[in-house]
Prior knowledge:
Layout: E1 2-4, H1 17-46, E2 51-55, E3 58-59, H2 60-71, E4 74-76, E5 86-87, E6 90-94, H3 96-104, E7 109-113, E8 118-123, E9 138-140, E10 159-160, E11 168-169, E12 177-181, H4 182-187, H5 193-197, E13 203-205, E14 216-218, E15 221-222, E16 228-230, E17 233-235, E18 250-257, H6 261-264, E19 271-277, E20 285-293, E21 297-307, E22 314-325, E23 334-346, E24 351-365, E25 372-373, E26 376-377, E27 391-406, E28 411-432, E29 440-450, E30 456-470, E31 473-500, E32 520-539, E33 543-560, E34 563-584, E35 587-598, E36 613-626, E37 631-648, E38 656-676, E39 679-695, E40 711-720, E41 729-738, E42 741-742, E43 751-752, E44 755-768, E45 771-780, E46 791-793, E47 796-797, E48 804-812
Parallel strand pairs: 4-8, 16-19
Antiparallel strand pairs: 1-9, 2-6, 3-5, 7-8, 10-11, 12-18, 13-14, 14-15, 16-17, 18-19, 20-21, 20-48, 21-22, 22-23, 23-24, 24-27, 25-26, 27-28, 28-29, 28-30, 29-31, 30-31, 31-32, 32-33, 33-34, 34-35, 35-36, 36-37, 37-38, 38-39, 39-40, 40-41, 41-44, 42-43, 44-45, 45-48, 46-47
Amino acid sequence: xxxxxxxxxxxxxxxxxxxxxxxALEAVALLCAMAASNAAIAENAGSGEVYKFNIxxxxxxxxxxxxxxxxxxxxxYPATMANxxxxxxxxxxxxxxxxxxxxxxxxxxxYRITGDGFVTVERVLLPQSYEVTMPTITVSGQxxxxxxxxxxxxxxxxxxxxxxxxxTPIMETPYSIQVIPKQVIEDIQGISPNDALDYVSGVYxxxxxxxxxxxxxxxxxDNFPQGDYRDGMPFPIAGYVTGGRDLANTERVExxxxxxxxxxGLTSPGGTVNYVTKKPLASxxxxxxxxxxxxxxxxxxxxxxxxxxxxxxxxxRFNLAYKSANSFRDFVNNERTFLAPVVTWNISxxxxxxxxxxxxxxxxxxxRGIPAIGDRPANLPRNRFTSNPYPYNYDRTMVGxxxxxxxxxxxKINHRFNAQWLGSDGVASDTxxxxxxxxxxxxxxxxxFQAPCQQPVYFNSLNLTGKFDxxxxxxxxxxxxxxxxxxxxxxQGFIFDSINIYNPQxxxxxxxxxxxxxxxxxxxxxxxxxxxxxxxxxxxxxIQILGGMRYDSTESSSSWNxxxxxxPRQDSxxxxxxxxxxxxxxxxxxxxxxxxxxxxxxxxxxxxxLPPTGAQQWELGIKTELFQKKFLATLAWFDLTKQNVAxxxxxxxxxxxxxxxxxxxxLELDLKGExxxxxxxxxxxxxxxxxxxxxxxxxxxxxxxxxVPKHGGSLFTTYELQWGMLRGLKFGGGVIARGAxxxxxxxxxxxxxxxxxxxxxxSYGWKVGKSTLTAQLNVxxxxxxxxxxxxxxxxxxxxxxxxxxxxxxxxxx
Length: 813
């Protein structure tokens, strides 16, 4: 990538000839000295040593001192020069020059590095009483972006925190951790989580993965009912969060493959998804985007951030999204309003507090899809709706506060508290069984009323991290604990009728709620306590090991129509360990063993919680990071076994039962990043030959999991012109492919045919004054294939969207 320097045209003023010549010579000498110094620096940087920096944004003097201490260089600058100047944050592995460029960017300060490593920081000053014409200078190199920079175009980020709860390079992590950054989400115009998760190997959409819920399988196992995480906080149990999650305030999506109980406790053994949210920034940034798509889809988003006071100790960020959409499916529509304000208070250079709120409300018509006839989806028009067309309303409010304090360069403590209130009001319709020879089938609707105050969720976590050396070995220690409480108090009822899938007749809304006297009362409470210890140790010969242990204690109780049930307290101790060998910076080999424990495992008939699950996983893999950390590839083999797997109860629709044991094993490949300047790619492939029940009822053993293909993959690539009149023009496309899958776990289950959808992208960005205007068009399912991305059961098969268009206009400044 190349950047053109500014044209500097200086015209001589009418002064004495001697002064004019003297000033001109001073200017030329200064510019030449800076050019020669920078040339020498660039030469040294090519082979310079890389250091791991962790410098917070804030006071410039403190930041420079931290840089000097980390890199072991000598700094020289007047003490008053850095007063009232804010430094950019810096986290990651950089050379000294790269670190200085990032810290000083936009500060009005420059630097000089001598051959002996001495660094002088100075103001950028030029004589202003004259002007000298200088030639245009073109500087070639790669721009270094902070991971939270709104303009960061990277497809690959070198660090992630989800796998270790410390900011650890992915190359040094003994697990498969995949990151979907903001730029990928923008290029695919992702709105919901599964839009991003389509590009992670071994992750597939599952039942309810439309606008009603966001569900997916990871390494063969569903995330229901454990759910996912938001900045390390449970979001919460997926089975009770209607509407899924909007990505409006998501900076990136981090996916940790396999068990993660040690750090998070309540997780699916197949993998944990953590949504890292956008943080307040010291530099003002504003964005307004309008999206418009097929089937009357309209979505407006606002992103604004900056300081609230002159010393930038108070920062804010505000995200808003409003979406309204119909569907290619009859009767299906949804509407949503999402608000997410955040305020950061930098009390000092060592102490920070964040206050945050999320409000999410809307309605959706639950689309159960179509049934199967025989062993294939019924041959119906794609728009045919076979459920009850009743709206389902939901609202969610989250408030949180988290703070951190840095004792010194090595020790830090942070605390997080979040509270959520979840409400719902409506009917989630379903169908039951196969249609008869005339196309008639039974249908029912689950009527649920639940005030937000009747489903509170509370979460607390406290973490202490420290770095120290023992006997020449470097340690990164994590000591923490968390508490999670989930409560529900809901009124449920059922309505029953039938439908003919070939000639459907739909009831009116007034008949939706049946007889309130027949409603069931369900309440439940779960408490989860956890303590964990983890140590990352650096050994000689570029070997690193990770080890840890977690203790969990969970209690749960429930009541179904006044009949209480209290499950015995569950205690568990789970270990975790891994090793990484990095013989060269661009290549690493790793292996790990992890166990998982989950005290929540779905609900059986009558409202009783199912027995807790346990899981064990072995994983081996290799990673490579190329092109100055712009490209990352991971190849992983895993073998994962889970006990008490929850599956759909074939005798009681809407409930689950637990089988003895199931195993999933396979190979996964993920690669993403910049191959050449302007050319980005993200791709994945998973081969899962083993995903089946190994211990259980006789008719369950050997049965393959529902929704898990043997082969699945995805590819998306873009190229942006880097020069010429069309600079800023981007085009690209890709494909999402899935092999055949089973609809459910019953003996009479049907098969979802494999499919591949082709998607295209074109966008153009240009400057309008100080703003950047970007117009974009995406075409999804270009070939208009009929496909079925997921199923809840053989009677609930989701129908894939036909060819559709998504346009957007975004202005940033």
